[in-house]
Amino acid sequence: MQVRAVGGDWYDYVPIDDHRVGIILGDVCGKGMAAALLMSATRSIVRRNIAGGGNPADVLRGVNASLRADFPPGRFVTLIYAVLDAGRHTLTFASAGHLPPVVARGEDCTCILTESGLPLGIFASDFSEASIDMDRGSSVLLYTDGIIETTDRAGNEYGINRLSDALAADSPSAHSLTNDVIRYSGGQSLADDATVVLVHRNAE
Fold it and tell me: What is the pLDDT of residue 190?
């Protein structure tokens, strides 16, 4: 879900081999065409580093080194890079200052944090990883701040608790989650780009 024709959110899926796929969700500082152009450059750098091999933390270190050399002052990107291993049923990710993924197992929802990882393009940073076991019926949600910062007409934010409740509902989808945010806003124009990526393992 985007609030403008162009914006600074970006998600992507990159096949790695027969069993693994890379999943990226990023949010560049700023809005409009300038943010979209910076994210376009980031996309090329991320894909190049993924093609070079390495785990999620290695990829983010390489991306950060490139962006620090090229990004204009005051600009940065928050980003998650995750590798879904369908053979092992795991999702391993590193985060560059991005909002923590939410894992839902039935009605139980938990935010998963990594120990380190600053936004890309500002300072040198170490990046740590976390791994999530994709049990049958479990879901992992990646999202940008435009989702949880959406407000109703009284100015109350949607928030992480409402997002977790929507994720724990029966048969959640990216479409149903974004529709819930739109309904909460009461039809107002969203103040920021808002994007979700949902990874789900069937219960069968």
Answer: 67
Half-sphere exposure of 152 (CA within 13 A, CB side): 8
CATH architecture of the domain 9-200 equals 4-Layer Sandwich (3.60)
- pLDDT category at 2 given cuts 50, 70, 90 is very low
Token pair 């300072």 in the structure block, residue: 123
- Alpha carbon distance 42, 52 (integer Å): 15
Q: Residue 8 carries which DSSP code?
A: S
pLDDT number for residue 39: 87
Q: State the average pLDDT over residues 109-121.
A: 95
Phi, psi at 184, each rounded to 5°: -65, -35
Q: What confidence score (pLDDT) does residue 40 get?
A: 87
Task: Extract the tokens encoding 171.
Answer: 């048969």
Structural domain boundaries of the chain?
Answer: 9-200
Cα 38 to Cα 194: distance, rounded to the nearest angstrom? 17
